[in-house]
Amino acid sequence: MSTGCVSGQLPAPGAGRAEQGPAAAPPGGAAGSTDRARVERLVTSGTFSLDGGTWQVENNVWIVGDDEQCVVIDPAHDAAAVTADAGARNTRAALVTHSHDDHIRAEAPHLQEWIDRCP
């Protein structure tokens, strides 16, 4: 399912993965390269716990890159799904914008795998 993001608006939660149109070539891209960076949205589901409460939530995981390399932003819940979505691309970094448990639990078991994929 592909629904573009328009004027900074995000697709509705639960809409699945969506791609945004081409952007500038990523840093380090070859001069004259036809590869264009894109923003991909992956929705993962699971629990979030804070201050004694636990809730079912959906999270937006962002994968930014081209066909050869990417950066994963806020991986959550299902690290295997995030890894599969990144595919064979060279994962340059996994960026976590905050330390909620739904993000930290997803990264911990796969941290070494993601480190090994980075150059």
Description:
By secondary structure, the protein is of the alpha+beta class. The protein has a domain at 37-117: Ribonuclease Z/Hydroxyacylglutathione hydrolase-like (Metallo-beta-lactamase, Chain A, 4-Layer Sandwich). Helix content is 18%, strand content 34%. The chain has 3 helices and 5 strands. The chain has helices spanning 79-86, 101-107, 111-117, and strands at 18-20, 38-50, 53-65, 69-73, 90-95. It is elongated and about 45 Å long. The relative contact order is 0.16.
Task: State the helicity in percent bands.
Answer: 10-25%
Q: What's the N-to-C terminus distance? A: 31 Å
CATH topology call of the domain at 37-117 = Metallo-beta-lactamase, Chain A
Which segments are poorly predicted (pLDDT under 50) over 5 or more consecutive residues?
A: 1-21
| Topology as a string of helices (H) and strands (E) | EEEEHEHH
**What is the CATH superfamily label of the domain at 37-117?**
Ribonuclease Z/Hydroxyacylglutathione hydrolase-like
**Helix segment tally:** 3
Bin the strand percentage.
25-35%
Shape: elongated
The assigned structural class equals: alpha+beta
Largest sheet: 5 strands, mixed
| Overall strand count | 5
CATH class of the domain at 37-117: Alpha Beta
- How are the strands ordered across the major sheet? 1-2-3-4-5
**Radius of gyration using CA atoms only:** 15 Å
Overall pLDDT: 71
Gross CATH architecture of the domain at 37-117: 4-Layer Sandwich
